[in-house]
Design brief:
Blueprint (H helix, E strand, L loop, with lengths): L5 E5 L3 H23 L1 H11 L2 H9 L3 E7 L2 E10 L5 E9 L8 H15 L4 E7 L3 H9 L3 E11 L2 E11 L11
Parallel strand pairs: 4-5
Antiparallel strand pairs: 1-2, 2-3, 3-4, 5-7, 6-7
């Protein structure tokens, strides 16, 4: 899958982390405020998507990639390889609302699948908010199955009330019929 218009850049510099922080602030406001409310969004962005938090995640096992189209950063993805087996947590895949319809979400998922298929990782899982119906439907169209509910306290009385979605990768995207 080669698309010279789109680019996935591994995040490692302070400037790139700052770009992710800017994108996170805007995307989380667009997507999550109607689902979980402003207070929880503010808390989660500060706790999980601040520069300090992202740098700490990068020093652990997280990998962040900026998603660019025609030279403009329009989203990001974060993945966490499992240290104990051939699985991967897709921690974040976010594209600006204004950039939806360009196929970036699908291309980003294919990028992740190919990257980890090459590393011998054949299963991806993620958590999605139970009330994020559009996201749940999109992941189902992309081959994920619902493995059941999860509920996790994240501090300050807030919880993540999610479904765990799972997908097994059997063929790399380069051999599939990917647009």
């Amino acid at each position: 899958m080669k698309n010279t218009m789109n680019h996935f850049q591994f995040v490692h510099s302070e400037e790139q982390v700052a770009a992710v922080v800017r994108l996170a602030h805007e995307i989380w406001q667009e997507h999550y405020v109607p689902i979980i409310g402003q207070k929880q969004v503010d808390y989660m962005v500060a706790k999980f998507q601040s520069a300090h938090s992202i740098i700490a995640q990068l020093s652990d096992t997280y990998e962040y990639y900026l998603v660019s189209h025609q030279g403009q950063d329009l989203g990001y993805v974060a993945i966490v390889p499992d240290r104990t087996g051939p699985t991967l947590m897709l921690s974040k895949i976010y594209i600006l609302k204004s950039a939806r319809g360009l196929g970036l979400e699908k291309q980003t998922l294919y990028f992740v699948e190919d990257l980890y298929f090459q590393r011998g990782i054949n299963q991806i899982w993620l958590s999605v908010n139970k009330y994020g119906l559009d996201a749940i439907a999109w992941y189902a169209r992309m081959g994920f199955r619902n493995a059941g509910p999860t509920r996790q306290g994240i501090g300050e009385g807030f919880v993540m009330d999610d479904f765990r979605l799972v997908k097994t990768i059997t063929i790399p995207v380069s051999v599939r019929d990917a647009p």
